[in-house]
Design a protein that fits this description.
The complex is a heterodimer of chains A (201) and B (189). Chain A is an alpha/beta fold. Chain A has a domain of 135 residues. Chain A is built from seven helices and five strands; from the N terminus they run αβββαααααβαβ. Chain B has a five-stranded mixed sheet, covered by helices on one side. The longest helix of chain B is centred in the first third of the chain and has 20 residues. Classes of the chains: A alpha/beta (201), B alpha/beta (189). β5 of chain A pairs antiparallel with β1 of chain B.
Chain lengths: 201, 189
């Protein structure tokens, strides 16, 4: 009796529970992952020691390129984008068809003046990508960029804004933008920067 | 249920001695894969977010062109002028006393502007209200401007202002840029 031949069993760990948990986590991370959309232009942001991360939520972004052109990225939310387009259309006395509105909810960034926007929205998505945008006007004559911001805020005053400027943008372009934002009393926003590796500079 | 089946089986087939084990699927590769994907998605979500730096602009009507400056003791503040080609100048003078000699040039590296700001702050009468006035010229780059704001964060200067360069400063700055074009090599002071 005492000498029962012990059966050699491989040690088996029941992995079911672990699989359950890991797939639960996997699902969670897949669903929460937000992939960075490629920018319309290549922007090298300046570096800073700031460790604050860009907050989530309704965020509009202004890109400013090396040669001083501006792109405006409205908030992601589709219905709010349509409202924004309606507001802008009203302000500039044009109308947009339903297809154009639908196209507007999909654009990565607006980089054309209002009078070219209709044409831009009617391009196919591939053409939109290859389109060399002249930038949203922002100077003494026409402050469309500020209008975009202002009309976005009219849709929802809780929008936040971030400016993604290229290192080589001339300061006077940025200054013009800042002055415009002060005109509409929009004073708090973020500058997108790179994390600096250490206090070397 | 399982028990009954096992009994049935053992009754029928004599050859089967041991209890039929329920089939085991080896889940290890699946778990491996799942964890790999988890790691990937975790990293993607955190690295995707860029860093930001706060910027608050002064409200427009509250900024009468010269009034706030009069409140600032000149020795308790420093004016920094960001010029073209990554050049930066500073002074602690007012209009009448600012000359070519006391508007000095420095650089954006660690030994440059940061030291200048820290030394000026150490000498300040009231260090807690020491103020840095940043005056970017139109030729300055956005990068220089952000660097300057970053310096403020590094030197923990809460009090700083961004204004436009005054004409009398512009005049001397222009001269400096023009004159210093030849001996640009000795950028130190």
């Amino acid at each position: 009796m005492a000498r029962v031949k012990p059966k050699r069993h491989n040690i088996r760990v029941d992995m079911t529970a672990m699989t359950d948990v890991s797939f639960l986590l996997l699902t969670f991370f897949i669903l929460t992952a937000q992939f960075a959309k490629p920018d319309v232009e290549n922007i090298t942001t300046p570096s800073s020691i700031s460790e604050k991360l860009l907050p989530d939520g309704s965020l509009m972004t202004i890109l400013s390129t090396t040669d001083g052109r501006f792109y405006f990225t409205p908030v992601e939310n589709g219905t709010e984008r349509m409202q924004l387009l309606d507001n802008m259309a009203k302000k500039y006395g044009t109308t947009f068809s339903d297809e154009e509105k639908a196209a507007f909810t999909r654009v990565t960034a607006v980089g054309v003046p209002m009078n070219q926007l209709k044409g831009f929205l009617n391009l196919s998505e591939e053409d939109q990508e290859n389109f060399k945008a002249p930038g949203v006007p922002m100077d003494e004559n026409s402050k469309e960029l500020i209008d975009w911001v202002e009309q976005s805020l009219a849709v929802n005053p809780d929008y936040k804004m971030a400016i993604k400027g290229d290192t080589d943008t001339k300061y006077n372009r940025v200054k013009g933008l800042f002055e415009g934002l002060r005109d509409i009393d929009f004073l708090k926003f973020w500058l997108i920067t790179n994390q600096e590796t250490g206090p070397t500079n | 249920m399982a028990d009954i089946q096992v009994n049935d089986n053992s009754g029928k087939g004599k050859k089967v001695r041991s209890k039929k084990q329920p089939p085991h699927v080896d889940l290890t590769p699946m778990v491996d894969l799942a964890f790999l994907l988890i790691t990937f998605f975790m990293l993607v979500t955190t690295f995707n977010k860029p860093n930001v730096m706060d910027l608050g602009l002064p409200a427009k009507p509250k900024e009468p062109t010269n009034e706030p400056k009069n409140d600032i003791d000149l020795k308790n503040s420093i004016s920094i002028i960001i010029g073209k080609d990554n050049r930066v100048f500073y002074h602690q003078e007012e209009q009448a006393s600012l000359t070519d000699q006391n508007m000095l040039e420095t650089s954006f590296d660690r030994e440059g502007i940061r030291k200048v700001v820290q030394e000026a702050k150490a000498k300040a009468v009231k260090p807690d209200i020491f103020t840095v006035i940043i005056k970017p010229t139109d030729e300055a780059l956005y990068k220089n401007f952000v660097d300057m704001l970053d310096e403020m964060a590094i030197t923990k200067n809460e009090r700083y202002g961004i204004t436009e360069i005054r004409p009398w400063e512009q005049e001397i700055y222009d001269r400096k840029i023009g004159v210093a074009a030849a001996p640009a090599a000795n950028s130190g002071q």
